[in-house]
Amino acid sequence: MKEMIRVSALAWSVLYCIAAHAGEQHKHGAHESHGTHEAHESHGAHEAHESHGAHGAHDSHGAHDSHGAHDSHGAHESHGAHGHGSHRQHGAHVHGEAQLSIAADGDELWVELQSPAMNILGFEHYPDDGKQWAAVHNARRQLDQIGNLLDFPGAGCRQQAVELAVPFEQQQRGETPEHTEFHGQYKLRCSAIDRLKTVRVKLFDVFSGFESVKVRWLHAGGQGAADIDSRSPLVTIN
């Protein structure tokens, strides 16, 4: 199966570069914002120090300033912790979100989907009963056909192969990791791939747990990325 689903290395490498570049921009922007905040706090502390010098004769006022400096230090630590936490969350396993990559190579189209199991099943623990196992089996049936998940208007695309990693199918109770995910790779052949201008994402209609999808695409020398949701499920390829 892995031989059949061997995507163009060049196509995926470009897509991953897009994602990495977007991540670096996010990190750089957050760093500049944090630096500006620190500079602002330092300037405020300097002004407070000068004010304290003007009233240095009053010991009680000095004690009050010391308390203020302590509060300022606490606020600074809180800000640092908050920034660090936000950075950890970026690009992590987030319920409601998924990643979708689309790459054209000649008349072939390659699609990769990665999603937390919560979006698809409504749970991520090992199935407890027949109803939850039925949800797992239904998810496989839905994900097995790319036509259930995406539309490629006018491009004449037909699925050639699929490789799915479905949680719990190869696991025993007690072996389930903390975060479980579905992972699908699809190979399609398109009779009019040059007409591919939009992709309609139907995941929101099929599974109620999806809130947003991060899409990366590569097609006919162009490349891009978009965040979509159920209110705007179309990806423009240009």
Largest sheet: 6 strands, mixed
Helix content: 40-55%
Proportion of strand residues:
25-35%
Radius of gyration: 25 Å
Give the SSE string. HHEEHHEEEEHEEE
Tell me, what's the shape? elongated
Q: What ranges have pLDDT less than 50 throughout 5 or more consecutive residues?
A: 1-5, 7-11, 18-23, 25-91
Order of strands in the sheet with the most strands?
Answer: 4-5-2-1-7-8
Could you describe the 3D structure shown?
The protein is of the alpha+beta class and 238 residues long. The protein folds into two domains: 22-89; 95-236, no CATH class. It has helices at 9-54, 59-89, 117-121, 130-143, 203-206; strands at residues 97-105, 108-116, 150-151, 157-165, 181-190, 198-201, 212-219, 222-229, 234-236. The strands form two sheets. The protein has a six-stranded mixed β-sheet with strand order 4-5-2-1-7-8. The chain has a three-stranded antiparallel β-sheet with strand order 3-6-9, with no helix packed on it. A hairpin with a 2-residue loop joins strand 7 and strand 8 (222-229). The longest helix is centred in the first third of the chain and has 46 residues, at 9-54.
